[in-house]
């Protein structure tokens, strides 16, 4: 019996021209995912409120007569109209013009914050131009305070809104985009695995459409249904999706991707291309079209230059300041360790560092002094794979040591390694040196200094498999940037407070 698609019995609609809207105002409405509409409405209210609050703070800090217009006391109504209505509306218009409300950039990545910052520069330039053109006498202190305060408040509000959105996506399964993956089964499963690692991204694969026939998936268990030989748009409607992700080699077939894009125009369905080039971040990838052929140009990783010098300077300064600030805490921890188990306060172990050089890492001791002798009897209880040995309830760890591990306080002495240039604040974790030379892809971790924290630590720590930990470390090496380091340091705070994966 032939399967009859439910959409086949609907009255036929007039075909739309290839990619040409019916009028200049025509715009396809999304069929399923509309989470961005209320979210954008909330952002509009937050941005407007942030602008009003920043203006109010600036006016309160300075005398109103000298705060904005010099003649504000003569016309207070106009002054307050500009401060609390026209300026906030101007912010919203410029934010919109800079794509700060575009759903493609909301909730993930740094593009949203970059566009807000770009809008702030545009607002500052616009205010300066208008003041010059109208010969308005403005207080630079107040205007500067209002603009800078607005930028900081908008960034804070959007960060908090993003945290709420991520929580809703992780626990409620709403505010997401439902995707149909198009490609061969291995390529589709690779994309499925990648997007499933980050539920906060809001991408939920619901079906796979095979380009090489259904026989390629026969007898293979898949987490989502597999289809083949179907009309893609009909399949999208059937499974309730709103996004198509073209995976790997399917995106390189001549004319095929273009025909899919034509077919989707006017349907309100998003089209995403997932090339075979994986674990390469956006800043390294540039599109250079040549005669209509979009070429992806991949830059080399930035492992030297001024940015690296800035990273080293930041590491040394932060480590020196941190050691001085944490000295009383170090003394308290040392006393707790000596009371728990007589022996050395610090644990020194050889680790492999930058370019394969071996150094001795500093850590607070969390195990009994005979821990190494008792290791042989516990090898068969190892709960991790790869080059590490981990047990959640390790009997060699004393009570104070469990607290130090759970709170990550045992890692703080590694600031000494950072001060000496053996480690960095952010980087791949240094692995033990007694396992011999690193082979294969693992050696690439040695291109940068190991770190106290890193992408591995903020993504699950000991809960991750060895292969996943290596993948994250290699991703960090290939896509390192100073802004990425600051982002990982910020995420580390939340991970440490949550005590996730620490044992």
Automatic annotation (TrEMBL):
Residues 1-22 are annotated as: Disordered. GO terms for molecular function: transferase activity. The keyword Aminoacyl-tRNA synthetase does not apply. Gene3D superfamilies: NAD(P)-binding Rossmann-like Domain. It is a multi-pass membrane protein. The chain crosses the membrane at residues 39-58, 78-96, 116-134, 140-161, 318-339. It comes from the Bacteria. It is found in: Membrane. Pfam families: Bac_transf, CoA_binding_3. Keywords: Membrane, Transferase, Transmembrane, Transmembrane helix. Its EC number is 2.7.8.-. Residues 311-497 form the Bacterial sugar transferase domain. InterPro entries: Bact_transf (IPR003362), EPS_sugar_tfrase (IPR017475). Belongs to the bacterial sugar transferase family. This is Sugar transferase.
């Amino acid at each position: 019996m032939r399967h009859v698609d439910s959409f086949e019995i609907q009255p036929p609609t007039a075909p739309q021209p290839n990619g040409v809207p019916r009028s200049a105002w025509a715009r396809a409405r999304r069929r399923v995912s509309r989470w961005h509409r209320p979210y954008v409405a909330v952002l509009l209210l937050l941005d407007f409120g942030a602008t009003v609050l920043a203006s109010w703070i600036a006016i309160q800090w300075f005398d109103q007569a000298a705060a904005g217009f010099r003649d504000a006391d003569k016309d207070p109504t106009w002054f307050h109209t500009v401060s609390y209505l026209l300026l906030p509306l101007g912010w919203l218009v410029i934010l919109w013009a800079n794509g700060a409300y575009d759903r493609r950039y909301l909730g993930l990545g740094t593009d949203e914050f970059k566009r807000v910052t770009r809008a702030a520069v545009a607002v500052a330039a616009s205010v300066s131009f208008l003041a010059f053109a109208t010969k308005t006498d403005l207080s630079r202190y107040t205007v500067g305070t209002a603009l800078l305060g607005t930028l900081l408040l908008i960034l804070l509000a959007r960060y908090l809104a993003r945290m709420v959105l991520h929580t809703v996506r992780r626990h409620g399964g709403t505010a997401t985009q439902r995707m149909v993956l198009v490609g061969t089964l291995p390529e589709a499963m690779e994309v499925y695995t990648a997007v499933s690692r980050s539920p906060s991204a809001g991408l939920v694969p619901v079906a796979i459409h095979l380009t090489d026939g259904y026989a390629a998936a026969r007898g293979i268990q898949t987490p989502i249904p597999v289809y083949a030989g179907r009309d893609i748009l009909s399949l999208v409607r059937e499974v309730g999706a709103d996004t198509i992700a073209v995976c790997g080699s399917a995106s390189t077939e001549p004319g095929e991707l273009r025909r899919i894009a034509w077919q989707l125009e006017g349907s309100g369905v998003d089209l995403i291309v997932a090339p075979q080039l994986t674990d390469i971040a956006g800043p390294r990838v540039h599109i250079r079209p040549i005669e209509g052929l979009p070429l992806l140009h991949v830059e080399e990783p930035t492992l030297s230059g001024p940015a690296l010098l800035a990273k080293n300077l930041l590491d040394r300064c932060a480590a020196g300041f941190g050691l001085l600030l944490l000295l009383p805490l170090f003394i308290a921890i040392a006393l707790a360790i000596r009371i728990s188990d007589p022996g050395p306060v610090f644990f020194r172990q050889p680790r492999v560092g930058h370019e394969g050089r071996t150094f001795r890492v500093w850590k607070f001791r969390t195990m009994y002094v005979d821990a190494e002798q008792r290791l042989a009897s516990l090898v068969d209880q190892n709960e991790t794979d790869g080059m590490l040995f981990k047990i959640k309830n390790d009997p060699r760890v004393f009570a104070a040591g469990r607290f130090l591990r759970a709170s990550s306080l045992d890692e703080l002495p590694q600031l000494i390694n950072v001060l000496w240039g053996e480690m960095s604040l952010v980087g791949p974790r240094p692995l033990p040196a007694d396992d011999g030379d690193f082979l294969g892809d693992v050696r690439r971790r040695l291109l940068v200094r190991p770190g106290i924290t890193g992408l591995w630590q903020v993504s699950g720590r000991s809960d991750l498999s060895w292969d996943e930990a290596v993948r994250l470390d290699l991703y960090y090496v290939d896509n390192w940037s100073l802004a990425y380091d600051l982002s990982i340091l910020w995420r580390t705070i939340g991970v440490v407070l949550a005590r996730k994966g620490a044992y």
